[in-house]
Amino acid sequence: MNTPAQASHDDSYASEHDHKKCVSEALGTAEHLCVVRGVQLTPIRHQVLELIWENHKAVKAYELLDRLKPQMDAAKPATIYRALDFLIEQGLIHRVESLNAFVGCRCSAHQHEQLLLICNNCQEVEERSAPEVMQALSQEIKQADFIVHSKALEIHGICVKCAQTMAGEQH
Amino acid sequence: MNTPAQASHDDSYASEHDHKKCVSEALGTAEHLCVVRGVQLTPIRHQVLELIWENHKAVKAYELLDRLKPQMDAAKPATIYRALDFLIEQGLIHRVESLNAFVGCRCSAHQHEQLLLICNNCQEVEERSAPEVMQALSQEIKQADFIVHSKALEIHGICVKCAQTMAGEQH
DNA sequence: AGTTAAGTGTTATATTATAACATTCGTCTT
DNA sequence: AAGACGAATGTTATAATATAACACTTAACT
Q: From the Cβ of B40, is strand D under 7 Å away?
């Protein structure tokens, strides 16, 4: 499979906002939730979650594996996939179905199913709770007499920042 | 990867409605659209489309390959994937992202992006145009200043028929 | 000490998908 | 007719994604 182009803004998400705060909040919430739920956020799981939170881009399992290896020589596919399974079960990350990739979840404590806006240019993923969409969805699903287990709501396109960057480069 | 349980109703979609008509309409529309668009629905592509339309279940690429081989001994992965790429480009089938599988599209001529209700029990997929959902989505995406390229809207759960079957089996 | 359950280590393999290059075939050009 | 072309297909190889299966460790409980 081809390596997707990894556009990267100077003013990327990671620098535009206070990403350290962003990460520490996410990890703090994760640690707290795991204690509350009586599940173990083991060192491996914590490391994988940290790697995922390095930015807001969707990241592939084998890329995480490569990034984990320097810290953990023994890391194998199963190491990553087990950690990912746990993190998904706990709602701490999203699996991006349309990319076979993973991204941190900011909404672990609340409802987990969100609308994902996925930039085809920079791979950053924006989560939106999109209440009107969810409301309309509920109605529609109810009309169909369908019993929901899970939702994957993924929009691909170009994010604001990339659109601006591209517009700037036109001149 | 595990083989998903393939539940199958006596009163399955395929027998409940006039599936022959369903298939002939789908194939007829496909043939017509390809003529209009000046693209070639070659024998291979036609055969793959027919295989996909054998039922309303999401089907895997390698399962299609196995089903194609009796008719076409030379069939290889590339054979299937090329046909699938064409059919997707032309909007004649959906790729179900959350299953890495494929299903016939009833709405080729109109808007292609639909809400998919995917039964975890029988693998049947119901397409719904869900105008209210699409309207709410447009609003939400506009608010995010996001430029849409494509949408994957996939709901997993249990379809009406399976729910009824299960309820019946409780006694 | 013995048992158990959860987590991890390790090897192997299954599943999904694409790359790369050769060949065929019909059509258009000369 | 000969050659050029583009689209489709044939063919081989391999990349990328994911899981199975079984062994081992550890901590908690009995």
A: yes
Q: How far is the CA of A79 from the C1' of D21 (A)?
A: 15
Enclosing H/E stretch for B54 = none
In a domain, A131, yes or no: yes
CATH number at residue A50: 1.10.10.10
B11: pLDDT strictly greater than 60? no
pLDDT at A50 over 60: yes
Residue B138, classed as helix, strand or coil, is helix
Contact, B129 vs B114, CB < 8 A? yes
Q: How many domains does chain B have?
A: 1
Query: Between the CA of B60 and the C1' of C13, what is the distance in angstroms?
Result: 19
Structure confidence by residue, pLDDT tens digits, B104-131:
999 866 677 899 999 999 999 999 999 9
Residue A101 pairs in a beta bridge with: A96
Q: Say yes or no: Cβ of A79 under 7 A from any atom of strand C.
A: yes
Indicate the angle between helix axes B43-52 and B77-89, nearest 10 degrees. Answer: 80
- With contacts defined as CB-CB under 8 Å, which chain B residues touch A142? none
SS3 per-residue string spanning A6-65: CCCCCCCHHHHCCHHHHHHHHHHHHHHHHHHHCCCCCHHHHHHHHHHCCCCECECHHHHH
Q: Is the CB of B152 under 7 A from strand C?
A: no
pLDDT recorded at residue B13: 53
Choose, out of A117, A127, A155, the residue to mutate when testing the contact with B (most B CBs < 10 Å). Answer: A155
Which residues of B are less than 8 Å from A146 in CB distance? 117, 126, 155, 157-160
DSSP summary character for residue B57: B
The predicted-structure confidence for A98-149, as pLDDT tens digits, reads as follows 999 999 999 866 677 899 999 999 999 999 999 999 999 999 999 999 999 9
For residue B8, tell me if it sits in a domain: no
Spatial separation of the C-alpha atoms in residues B74 and A154, rounded to whole Å: 36
Domain, as residue range, for B28: 13-169
